[in-house]
Amino acid sequence: MNRSMSWFNVTSLTLGFAFLYLPMMILIFYSFNASKLVTVWAGFSTKWYGELLHNKQFLDAAWVTLRVGVMSSTAATILGTMAAYVMVRGGRFFGRTLFSGMIYAPLVMPEVITGLSLLLLFIAIGLDRGIFTIVLAHTTFSMCYVSVVVSSRLMTFDRSLEEAALDLGCSPFDAFKSVTLPIITPAVISGWLLAFTLSLDDLVIASFASGPSSTTLPIKIFSAVRLGVSPEINALSTIMIGIVATGVITTSLISKNAIRRQRQEELEGTKL
Amino acid sequence: MAEANPQKVFAPWEDPNQAPLIRFEGVTKKFGTFTAVDDLNLDIYRGEFFALLGPSGCGKTTLMRMLAGFEDPTMGKIWLDDVDVAPIPPNRRPVNMMFQSYALFPHLTVWDNIAFGLKRSDMPKDKIGDRVQEMLRLTRLEQFAKRKPHQISGGQRQRVALARSLAKAPKLLLLDEPLGALDKKLRQETQFELMDIQEKTGTTFVIVTHDQEEAMTVATRVAVMDHGKLVQVATPAGIYETPNSVYVADFIGEVNIIEGAAAPTGDGKVDIAFAEGAEPIHATIGEPVTAGQKVFFAIRPEKIHVGREPDPTRANRIRGKVHDIAYLGNISTYRVELETGQMISAQMTNARRLSRRDFTWEDEVWLSWTDTAGVVLTR
Ligand SMILES: Nc1ncnc2c1ncn2[C@@H]1O[C@H](COP(=O)(O)OP(=O)(O)O)[C@@H](O)[C@H]1O
Ligand SMILES: [Mg+2]
């Protein structure tokens, strides 16, 4: 390591990582603090994690978040996969460029704008804000991420596999179900995990779309912090970091290993 | 190069009472402004092993894809067993295709790959196992049934692809450069295997290839294509011995082409003046030519005799100088420069040992050939 990296590189790497992860480290560290005072260390303890289990508000918020996450990421995966399939396989239909541009636009759209416009829509059509509206909002913004992941997989997918399925008597839908889908499954799963993580830690859009009865964890934490940081919140945040990190790591493992291995098999399977 | 089955006379294309299995009727396929297949008419008969031969990009794959249903003709009709196939989607055509890339399903085992089409046919469930087993036996893949495509060799994969496309017993099997990825030895073995399987199953095969030797080996008839058009359709021997154009003669095997002016001498013979002051070439005409018409004389190297002396029994005798010798073991190819400047290749079998070979570089030799050894082409 030392031989290949100059002191300058080592320093910038250290600084960069410190900048990124030091705040989180401090948070995790203090979540195990026995003291009620957040910044005074009084020995190791896991009592705040225990306290969490008795905090009805936090538990409710966690339950809402979990349901929103599962429902919205599932919906986003279905819609995003369909959109990706149409874009990659649909050929040159009228308005294709516009369509793909519009699918990717939310990637760069400021969240505040997305949130605000959704809020206006919900009010306009008279939809009461609650879990359902958060699910809709999350589906909207995470679907494009799924679509990016799945379409990049579809682009490297050997088209003749689908044609072979048709040739052997599959209807187009059967061909998708029994050939395309099994092969792109890893990409679909990582798309789902990505959408789930995005939904889990979204604050801005959720606060536009949520109603009084449906507070998600990020909203809960954000409002609790305004009354002062408590060790309980540190513990909660640590758990969320854990979940998100697991999601992200799993996603990247799936995309790195499974997809690469599959590509390899596909290549080996078609060439010599 | 001999016919595939010299002992059996199989020539439905010569029988006017035979109905073709496939009929292309003025088929044109355009991609945008580019014409990939150009007003093509072709009949293919039941039981044939039909080869489409041509350089890359001449429209062979497009022709196949129209048969399989992946492309629609821009103009014209395709008939399969007297049915217009235009409205039939690929999954309902009694046609199966073996893809250039094999297109094996990577997530399924060899067994499941072969059973894939059967499960989607009206074959009863308990018959499927037997049929797959039969296919595995036919392609000698029994011990690989449980493997995935990436766990077997290229030659085995190619056989899985073949077994999969044969399993449904299609009326017509399309093979798109099936052996392109195999090395030469494996390719030759597989060619014979293909012929064997074709004979056993009685399926009509249409094979695409850009390898002329492959086409000559396996096919009952060969169609030579160029720029989306058929240039000639004939038996391998017909294509080789009586090409109808310089393009075909040049595409199949080695050939000498000499350009000259025709002077018909009656009795079906023609003299071709090819150079100032040189004795004209005496040849037999296939199609009528007029005096002074520009013609091409095509002759295969093995039809030319090389000797120290002119051979008085052959009508054409020309003197030249050995420019180059390619020793190929069983045969030697001599490149001989005529006094008029043309370069002619002639081939002689090496009956004698190398040390006693007759000619060497710069030797003066006589090239002799009969007046029926070559063909006179007008295009
Ligand atoms: N889908 C397509 N769109 C545009 N051009 C195509 C398409 N498919 C084939 N072509 C063109 O048609 C020509 C014939 O292609 P193909 O039938 O694949 O040739 P071959 O199989 O004889 O090599 C090529 O020039 C190719 O570029
Ligand atoms: Mg091709």
Automatic annotation (TrEMBL), chain A:
<keyword id="KW-0472">Membrane</keyword>
<protein>
    <submittedName>
        <fullName>ABC transporter permease subunit</fullName>
    </submittedName>
</protein>
<feature type="transmembrane region" description="Helical">
    <location>
        <begin position="179"/>
        <end position="200"/>
    </location>
</feature>
<dbReference type="InterPro" id="IPR000515">
    <property type="entry name" value="MetI-like"/>
</dbReference>
<comment type="similarity">
    <text>Belongs to the binding-protein-dependent transport system permease family. CysTW subfamily.</text>
</comment>
<keyword id="KW-0812">Transmembrane</keyword>
<keyword id="KW-1133">Transmembrane helix</keyword>
<feature type="domain" description="ABC transmembrane type-1">
    <location>
        <begin position="62"/>
        <end position="254"/>
    </location>
</feature>
<feature type="transmembrane region" description="Helical">
    <location>
        <begin position="98"/>
        <end position="125"/>
    </location>
</feature>
<keyword id="KW-1003">Cell membrane</keyword>
<feature type="transmembrane region" description="Helical">
    <location>
        <begin position="7"/>
        <end position="32"/>
    </location>
</feature>
<feature type="transmembrane region" description="Helical">
    <location>
        <begin position="131"/>
        <end position="150"/>
    </location>
</feature>
<keyword id="KW-0813">Transport</keyword>
<dbReference type="InterPro" id="IPR051789">
    <property type="entry name" value="Bact_Polyamine_Transport"/>
</dbReference>
<feature type="transmembrane region" description="Helical">
    <location>
        <begin position="61"/>
        <end position="86"/>
    </location>
</feature>
<dbReference type="InterPro" id="IPR035906">
    <property type="entry name" value="MetI-like_sf"/>
</dbReference>
<dbReference type="Pfam" id="PF00528">
    <property type="entry name" value="BPD_transp_1"/>
</dbReference>
<feature type="transmembrane region" description="Helical">
    <location>
        <begin position="233"/>
        <end position="254"/>
    </location>
</feature>
From TrEMBL, chain B:
<keyword id="KW-0997">Cell inner membrane</keyword>
<dbReference type="GO" id="GO:0005524">
    <property type="term" value="F:ATP binding"/>
</dbReference>
<feature type="domain" description="ABC transporter">
    <location>
        <begin position="22"/>
        <end position="252"/>
    </location>
</feature>
<protein>
    <recommendedName>
        <fullName>Spermidine/putrescine import ATP-binding protein PotA</fullName>
        <ecNumber>7.6.2.11</ecNumber>
    </recommendedName>
</protein>
<keyword id="KW-1278">Translocase</keyword>
<keyword id="KW-0067">ATP-binding</keyword>
<dbReference type="Pfam" id="PF00005">
    <property type="entry name" value="ABC_tran"/>
</dbReference>
<keyword id="KW-1003">Cell membrane</keyword>
<dbReference type="InterPro" id="IPR005893">
    <property type="entry name" value="PotA-like"/>
</dbReference>
<dbReference type="Pfam" id="PF08402">
    <property type="entry name" value="TOBE_2"/>
</dbReference>
<dbReference type="InterPro" id="IPR050093">
    <property type="entry name" value="ABC_SmlMolc_Importer"/>
</dbReference>
<keyword id="KW-0547">Nucleotide-binding</keyword>
<dbReference type="InterPro" id="IPR003593">
    <property type="entry name" value="AAA+_ATPase"/>
</dbReference>
<dbReference type="InterPro" id="IPR003439">
    <property type="entry name" value="ABC_transporter-like_ATP-bd"/>
</dbReference>
<comment type="similarity">
    <text>Belongs to the ABC transporter superfamily. Spermidine/putrescine importer (TC 3.A.1.11.1) family.</text>
</comment>
<keyword id="KW-0813">Transport</keyword>
<comment type="function">
    <text>Part of the ABC transporter complex PotABCD involved in spermidine/putrescine import. Responsible for energy coupling to the transport system.</text>
</comment>
<dbReference type="InterPro" id="IPR008995">
    <property type="entry name" value="Mo/tungstate-bd_C_term_dom"/>
</dbReference>
<dbReference type="InterPro" id="IPR017871">
    <property type="entry name" value="ABC_transporter-like_CS"/>
</dbReference>
<keyword id="KW-0472">Membrane</keyword>
<dbReference type="InterPro" id="IPR027417">
    <property type="entry name" value="P-loop_NTPase"/>
</dbReference>
<comment type="subunit">
    <text>The complex is composed of two ATP-binding proteins (PotA), two transmembrane proteins (PotB and PotC) and a solute-binding protein (PotD).</text>
</comment>
